[in-house]
Amino acid sequence: MEERHKKILQRNRTNLVRDLDPSNLYDGLLEKGVFTQDMIDEIKGSGTRRDQARQLVRDLETRGSRAFPLFLLCLQETGQHSLAELLQNGAPTVHLQPATPTEVLRPVLQPLPVSPEREHIRPRPPGRQRRDSIQSYKMDASPCGHCLIINNVEFEPQSELSNRKGSNIDCDKLERRFKALNFIVEVKTNLKQRQIKRELSALSKEDHSQYDCCVVIMLSHGTEVSHNRFPGAVYGVDGQSVPVQHITNYLNGQHCPSLQGKPKLFFIQACGGGERDTGFEVSPDEVKPSVGGADDQTDAIPMSSSSDSLSMSDEPDARVTLPTPSDILVSYSTFPGYVSWRDTQSGSWYVETMDRILEENAATDDLVTMLMMVNHEVSQNSAKGLYKQMPGSFNFLRKLLYFQTQT
Question: Where do the CARD domain residues begin and end (predicted)?
Answer without folding.
Answer: 1-90
